[in-house]
Amino acid sequence: MTLKVYLSGEIHTDWREQIVEGAKALDVEFSAPVTDHDASDDCGVAILGTEENKYWHDHKGAMVNAIRTRKGIAEADVVVVRFGEKYRQWNAAFDAGYAAALGKSLIILQLPEHDHALKEVDAAALAVAREPVQVVEILRYVLTGKLPG
Known about the structure:
By secondary structure, this protein is an alpha/beta fold. The chain has a single domain, classed as Rossmann fold, CATH 3.40.50. The protein contains six helices and five strands. It has a five-stranded parallel β-sheet with strand order 2-1-3-4-5, with helices on both faces. Helix 4 (90-101) links the parallel strand 3 and strand 4 (105-109). Helix 1 (15-22) packs parallel to helix 6 (132-144) and helix 2 crosses helix 3.
């Protein structure tokens, strides 16, 4: 069985690389949004033309990025959404809600200090992990039925 896993959420740490590296021996195909922050922010105006108003600049980028995000989430068996500590990730919360609405298996990756703020998001998830290695162990268990260790 191959699992298709979409890795959504914050782009300022190496959590994605940790999961991909940890799952190298597993039958997993990963996809993700564009994680180059400048490219993600500027894709709309780079492709569709400049905008003087920052709102429309960001709006164009969000719409272009949504094409990739919707496809990735729709095709995924499992969606992992990481909420980081530094920035408010409204887009990550939206991705989690979209995945839940599609009935996707959802794993949330967050710090304990976000438990209260994310309680509704967590309630829609099948697992809430604290570390990328826990996500890898969930994927391993799903694919092999084997416990860690």
